[in-house]
Amino acid sequence: MKSIGIVICNYNKKDYVLACIQAVLESSIKDYDIYVVDNASTDGSADAIHKQYGNTVTVIKNKMNLGGSGGFNTGIRIVVELGYTYVCCLDNDAMIDEKALESMKCFLNMNKDVGMVGAKIYFSKNTNIIQQFGLRIDFKKFQAETLYNEVEDSEKVPEIVYCDTVAACVVMVPTSVIKIVGGMPDDNFIYWDDMEWGYCIKQAGYKVAAIGKAKAIHEMGAHIRKDNTFIQYYMWRNRFHFFMKHTKEKDLDKMSVKMLQNLFESVFEAMYKGEYNVSQTLLIAYKDALDGIRGQAMEGRILKNDGNIKDFIQIFQKLTKIRVESDVSWLQAILKILSLPVTIAEGSDTSAVPVKICSSVLRIKEYQEGNVYIDYDLNVLNNKQDAELIKGFDMAQGLFLYMNQYLFLQSTKRIRSKYRKPIANNVLQGDELLCQDD
Asked: For a FRET experiment, which of 105, 138, 374, 410 has its CA 20 to 30 Å from that of 62?
């Protein structure tokens, strides 16, 4: 019997999944079987796979779209039941190099204390720039940090990164670990499911690693529709759920403050830019998290995406020459992408308009007329009217926190009560674990 059961989750990405399969078939080892879980695609994916690869690939057809977590778990359960030693999960838009499977299998064979291993992932359009090389879950800022993101690969990048979790676009896990910890949380539907899986594996006493010998490129949603607020809804709802569920008891108050502040800032920022659907989606995601609503989004949750950077573009279209004190290369790259022919002058050129780059324009306390303030989300502060609007930010944020913190903590208590007792061998039932280290 082969030792690796490869699970590829697919939904309406026919061309990508065919390329993903082909990359697997070119691997240096052949000790695997391929299972494609198709989430009720309507683009002919399943037929195309059968036509091109025949019995080389087993296609499992779900009757409905179960999302990334549900799709992967469908395959994971089969791999565990059939007795494979390892499960390898691949996103349909990931392409592994020929040594990736061999390297991950070898690493797990030699390191029995490791319960999950991922690859070094590169951007598809610039294959020497790292997209991610492990992930860290920050329980101070209550967010996830992508390690080595947008770093040029070099000898300075370590060969092994021990971390909190790795992205499920390319990951290998021993089935013996899955029998103890379980699979991904089905009810996430998509996003933060791989975060929670890796985190629970680490909390069960295993190490989680990403290794440089296993390489892959990943589109990372370059082809995902951006015409709606799909990403915003699931990212925010599932992030709230993760930290409500897994934060240590003693840190719940701090978590509630930080996350509510973060939510309000994002909503305020969206309203500031006229992104009313985006702001509404964030508040809906927050409410659903409080209400314990899981799974696929109900009707009316995903709205037309009105996200924009029109103010940034309009202002820089009027400028011909600017001077910048810091992060010149970052701004140059943005202007190039947006085809804005603005000259960045020397710092001493007083004829150039001063542009101040900051972490958030919402934090500007002293607006100086004549300056243009921008931040890394491409928000702009450029006039007295905007400055007056921003002056009310701190007070409004404090009021939002005062109005919501008690309700947030009560909802957190209710949600945590559902996950008190770990359930062993849960993968076949699809139950969840509470993996906190209080």
From this structure: 105
Q: Are 212 and 157 in contact (CB under 8 A)?
A: yes
Closest by Cα among 110, 108, 109, 69 to 119: 108
In whole angstroms, give the CA distance from residue 62 to residue 66: 8
Q: Find tokens 């999960």 and name the residue.
A: 89
Q: Return the structure tokens found at 216.
A: 């892959």
Q: Provide the pLDDT for residue 323.
A: 93
Structural domain boundaries in the chain: 4-224, 230-307+392-419, 313-386
Give exposure, 380-397, as e/b (b: 16+ Cβ within 10 Å).
Answer: bbbeeebbeebeebeeeb
User: β-strands 94-96, 4-10: how paired?
Assistant: unpaired
Q: In this predicted structure, what is the pLDDT of residue 419?
A: 82
pLDDT along the chain (438 residues), means of 10: 98 97 98 98 97 98 96 98 99 98 99 99 94 98 97 97 97 98 96 97 98 94 70 98 98 98 97 96 98 96 94 94 91 93 85 94 92 95 92 95 98 90 42 47
CATH topology of domain 4-224: Spore Coat Polysaccharide Biosynthesis Protein SpsA; Chain A (3.90.550)
Q: Are strands 114-123 and 129-132 parallel, antiparallel or unpaired?
A: antiparallel
Sheet bearing 321-324, strands edge to edge: 343-344, 321-324, 353-358, 372-375, 380-381
Inter-residue contact 88 to 165 (CB < 8 Å): no
pLDDT of res. 434: 54
Tokens of 390: 């921003």
Q: Do 227 and 277 touch, CB atoms closer than 8 A?
A: no
Axis-axis angle for helices 276-290, 393-416 (nearest 10): 30
Instruction: Give the pTM.
Output: 0.92
pLDDT the model gives residue 292: 96
Q: DSSP E strands: which ranges in 188-284?
A: 207-218
- From CA 360, how far away is CA 436, in angstroms rounded? 32
